[in-house]
Amino acid sequence: MLFLDSSNPAEIRELFAWGVLGGVTTNPLILSREAKDAILEERMREVIAASHGPVSVELIAETEAEMLEEARAIHAWDPARICVKVPFGEAGLRVTHALAKAGVRTNVTCVMNFNQAYLAALAGGTYVSIFSGRIRDMGYDAREVIEQTRARFDRERLTAEVLVGSIRHIADVNEALFAGAHVVTVPPPILRKMLHNPKTDETIREFNAAWANRGK
Ligand code: E4P
């Protein structure tokens, strides 16, 4: 499955019309670029209206108590659609566990290795976000992390889904899917690039020209 990594309502609406997307992820960096003058709640309501499926909104608070308070407020915007994105860490695990017990969906984010992914799943995370591009920045093999995580989740029948983000190239999408990602969250420019192949364009032009010139 593919999600869109964006907080731009117009672009989200346009790309959801392709019929290939099943959710949206955002993060504070994306929002600081795309919605710097917007009120977060209003922007997220626009994102929800422009899409379908789960919409991840990340917590900014750093202490457990503040994170839980923020999570409850964000979740109340749309309990059926909001997925609370929880930064990985000790407080994050406690918050993930508490939200899971309360029936709130979570997306444990900024996960860079198998150990973290495993802890996030054991704590009750709904999605575990593995950051492909950033793992590669550190010199590690993102494919191996995704493969090992998915294999272990399956083996222990953990319900968490492997969500792969930090996608920089089309090849990253394919690699993540073949390695076992349940979901890949794709930035809009990468999704647009997935459309094109010069041979497809050439073939369509050839077919249309043949039809236009039939009988000549
Ligand atoms: C995933 O949910 C994140 O929003 C995102 O993919 C982070 O990737 P980055 O490395 O482009 O910041």
UniProtKB/TrEMBL annotation:
User: Which stretches are annotated as coiled coil?
Assistant: none
Q: Which UniProt keywords apply?
A: Schiff base
One of the Pfam families matching this protein, by short name: TAL_FSA
Q: Which InterPro entries match?
A: Aldolase_TIM (IPR013785), TAL/FSA (IPR001585), TSA/FSA_arc/bac (IPR033919)
One Gene Ontology term of the molecular function aspect: aldehyde-lyase activity
Task: Tell me yes or no: is Signal among this UniProt entry's keywords.
Answer: no
Among its keywords, does the record have Nucleotide-binding?
no
The Gene Ontology biological process annotation of the record reads: carbohydrate metabolic process
Check the record and name the SUPFAM superfamilies matching this protein: Aldolase
Q: What is this protein called?
A: Transaldolase
